[in-house]
Amino acid sequence: MNPLFQAGLKRRLPAQPFLSLKYFIVTSIVMIILMPAVFASNWIAAISGSDQQIVKGLGGALPWYTVGTPIQHYPLAAQTVLDMGTSILRVYIMNQNNVFDTNGNLVNTALADTMVSEIKWAASNGIPYNYTPGWNNLPSICFSNGVLLLQYEQAQCNAVVNMLAYFTNHGCALPLITSMANEPSAPVGFMTTVPINQFQTVFQLCRTTMNNAGLSAEPLAFGENGQCEYQLYYLNGDGFPALTSDPALDSDIGAFATHTYYPSLGYHEEYLDSLNTWANGRDNWETEYCYNGDQVIAGKDYTTGMVERFISDMVLLQVNYWEMWEIWNNNGPAATDTLCSGNGISTVTLPPAYYVFKKVFGNVTPGSTVRTVFTYNPNLIGSGTLGTFMDLVAFVNSSNMTVVLVNPTTNAIGMNVTGLTGNSANVYQIATAAPYNTDMTLIGSSVISGGTITNVNLAANSVTVIVTCQVQSAGFGVQSNEFGFTITGASNLAVVVEASSNLVNSAWVPLSTNTLTGGSSYFSDPQWTNFPGRFYRLNSP
Q1: pLDDT tens digits along 262-296
Q2: Are strands 424-431 and 88-92 parallel, antiparallel or unpaired?
Q3: CB hemisphere CA count around 101 (13 angstroms)
């Protein structure tokens, strides 16, 4: 290699008319970039120019509460949750009797104190929360053959109000939404499926109880069922006939919330059609999903299934908030019903899916909008063929566009991506079977020309995330939490970016190979904060 540019040296190197680095900075950077292969014939991934719904929060829940051990007791796990870009936290109590007495008064204050501690931790990090109690938090005496006795329906409502009061009395803000009960359709423990009429009646009673307690502004979410099928079930079917026959029930609903286990395309489409009729500005929440039997039936590995379900929930169900079941649990193992595991103090186990969600959540900030992505490739499910495991989606905000592309096949796919916003794009990729604790790799950086980047290699069984930069000044400096600069020179010239942290005992490490498509290429590094200082130079092979 012949050094063409070496940053940080005092002597002036001979001018090179065919290559220039617009700017230089000494900072912290290390990453390997492999430029994608060139395909003779590429498929097209066409991003729509129209916005769907607004994304208001992406996150999940923490483990079922163990009294006295909030997330702060597990600092590495807590940092993992924050590093993922979590913007909504689900707080819940499920499958625990005797949290309240037969009048709905709180008796397990130690549990409530643990929840308060985590709510405050979330708030200190700018993360709001939603609250979900269980239908079975009352003593078992309140139930007969798994059904809540009529005389204890008011107690169920009192329990909701009393927990909210405990939160606010101990310095917490109210949640963004409150649900009346988690998964009323799921027989858990001694419970059976809650009857439709009872659920609707108690929901309205809960709304009245909240109003009487001065909580009329707190949205009460309807549902939190395990499947969209049961969301329809509790509102009397497709089109939500219950809301037509009972306008008071409609007015009591502050938001709609569901889980997306065991999906059916037909039920999902019916649910969305019903929401489009009845939403009237109310938010659409997906509050729980994890790797489950539906993925096993579909033959999906953990990362593919989780990311595809996330895409489907955003595109097909058009949710405003999306939450996974558990972000971390010290009872592990990772990549099961929990995303991450490890003891949370000295170890965390992070599967490939974690790094995908970290890249997406970190760039898709609240206020971003969803855009669909179309492809004719018969092996990928985009906006042209809706499904419950979809492979393509895009998000856009004032800072960037983020595109997620899943290749669940055993063959690489060449892709040209159109409809991009911004001036430059970084392309990240990870194999769905990559070793745990292995971050996504930056496989290419490209100048966007006419809204398009070409020759993106979707490796077999991989997830690719493209992050664009909206501002031309992205040629230099920190953008979207990554330091970068633009290299210009002769068109199609290959340039290797090398780095060293010490010019006295310099050991230059190649970080990326960039091809100057159209005469320029953008280099950036998501790991720039890992080093106290770094010098850069460019070489031509």
Answers
A1: 888 999 999 999 999 999 999 999 999 998 777 77
A2: unpaired
A3: 5
For the domain 57-368, what is the CATH code?
3.20.20.80
- List own/partner pairs for 189-193 with CB under 8 A and 24 or more apart: 189/95, 189/136, 190/136, 190/140, 190/143, 190/146, 191/135, 191/136, 191/143, 191/146, 192/145, 192/146, 192/147
Q: Which pTM does this prediction carry?
A: 0.82
- Residues 148 and 194: beta-carbon distance below 8 Å: yes
Residue 14 has a CB neighbour count (10 Å cut-off) of 5
Backbone φ and ψ for 17, nearest 5 degrees, come out as -65, -20
CATH 3.20.20.80 boundaries in the chain: 57-368
Q: What is the CA radius of gyration of the chain?
A: 26
> What's the pLDDT tens digit per position in 179-226?
999 998 876 665 678 999 999 999 999 999 999 999 999 999 999 999
Beta-carbon contacts of 347 under 8 Å, excluding residues fewer than 6 positions away, are: 76
Distance CA 63, CA 91 (A): 9
Domain at 2-51+370-540: CATH code: 2.60.40.1180
What separation in angstroms does the CA of 210 have from each of 47, 159, 178, 216, 259? 44, 11, 10, 6, 24
**Strand (E) positions, 304-349?**
321-328, 338-340
Q: Where in the chain is the domain with CATH 2.60.40.1180?
A: 2-51+370-540
Work out whether strand 284-288 and strand 321-328 pair parallel, antiparallel, or are unpaired: parallel
The C-alpha atoms of residue 327 and residue 335 are separated, in whole angstroms, by: 10
Helices (H) and strands (E) in the chain, counts: 11, 29
Which amino acid, 393? V
Q: What are the angstrom distances between the C-alpha of 119 and each of 211, 247, 435, 443, 502?
A: 23, 34, 33, 38, 44
Cβ-based neighbours of 372, under 8 Å, separated by 6 or more: 47, 48, 52, 315, 382, 383, 392, 393, 394
Cβ atoms 487, 495 nearer than 8 A: yes
Burial label for 174, CB within 10 Å (0-12, 13-18, 19+), is: middle
d(CA 154, CA 134): 15
First to last CA, the chain: 5
Instruction: Compute φ and ψ for 465, nearest 5 degrees.
Output: -125, 125
Are the CB atoms for 420 and 451 separated by under 8 Å? yes
